[in-house]
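Morning!

This is the sequence you dropped in the shared folder:
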Amino acid sequence: MYENNYPNHENTYYYENSSNYSSVNAGSENNGKSGKKQKNNSGFGKKIMIGICCGLSFGIFAGLGFQAVTTATDLMKDKMEISQEKEIEAEIEKDAKEVENAEQTKEELKSTEEISGTQLVATAVTDVSGVVKAVMPAVVSVNNKYVEKLSFWGQEFSQEAVGSGSGIIAGKNETELLVVTNYHVIDSAEELTVQFADGELVQAQVKGFDEDKDLAVIVVPLSEIKSETMDAIAIAKLGSSDDLTVGEPVIAIGNALGYGQAVTTGVVSALNRAIASSGEVSFQAQDKEINTFIQTDAAINPGNSGGPLLNIHGEVIGINSNKIAVSTVEGMGYAIPISDVHEIIEDLMSKQTRLKVAEDKQGYLGITGVNVVAEYVELYDAPEGVYVSSVMEGSGADEAGLVRGDVITAINGEEVSSMDELKEELSYYEAGTVIEVTIMQGSPTGYQAKIVEVKLGRQSSSR
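The structure's back. Tokens below.
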């Protein structure tokens, strides 16, 4: 029985065990399913949480990145704006400086124009055709036939010679055309002719001269000038040399080398150059009259003497004088400043025109004389003029009271300083004419001036 119960018990246990096992397993299964479900639910939530966290993290980082980019962009933008502002400020400052410099330059130019009184020329003057076209009709060629004296082995010879120069038509009166030139152009002239711009050649006469200033005025009777020639010529405009500046462009027109009118250009090289009456440049005091001249590098050649030196407006600002040019150098010509001699020119043009008398009709004084040279003037305090070495008995000079030792200084108010000048003056008077002779007579107190009237006699070998 025992045995029977045991197995049953065993079986029962087994059954129960099985039953319990089944239950346990079933429970385990149920629990496992439930745990799995719970596990799955918990993983999905985590995923959602992770996704949310990732999204938040992405959003945060994206926001931070966007903010960083925005900040960097703003910083770059600010830097660029600052840089652009600096560039703009620099450009504005540069423009302001340029405007300021331009204004300053403009003021300087204006100031320079006011000082010079002329329009500034920024470049070298190369085209002067307009000025030349306007002024050329006022320029003439002057031809001088004279007697040249030569000395050979102590013997003196004379021969006819021809010289050429230039002149400026400076005005006219009711009967004459007035031409200004250099004195040395017409000096000792036996015959003078003037050639106009159209080629017409007309005889001229000396109206007056100033040897010390190397100036002369010659005239051509209007009645001797053809109407076609009058239509072709012009009267020059005399300007002012007081306003000249060094470097100012100038134009020279003249009968260079006697070939006809020619044009040269240059600039004012210097002003107030001191030149002695002998034609040598002077840098110290001498016993000679000193005049001042315009120096120019415009070519002034033989034949240009007496022609005009012009400014760019075509005004005469100087009278060219080749005589005082230095022959050993180039680019140094001289002109008489027109402002310095304007009054002298006016005075010479107002003088009465004198016509030379035919040689066989000319009068004479009846003296022999020699020049008072500079050393005698200094040593003996003698006046400059013609020293009377002898007086012909019965001549006009004898009857007027002239004696040996007198010094003749003027004829009818025209100064004479040599026998050549004395003869030149007498060539305008016929025999029988009464003239006034200014003499200096010696006395215990020195030389005294005296004016005497002399009736000229017939021409002879002595004067």
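Headline: The mean pLDDT is 78.

More detail when I'm at my desk.
O.
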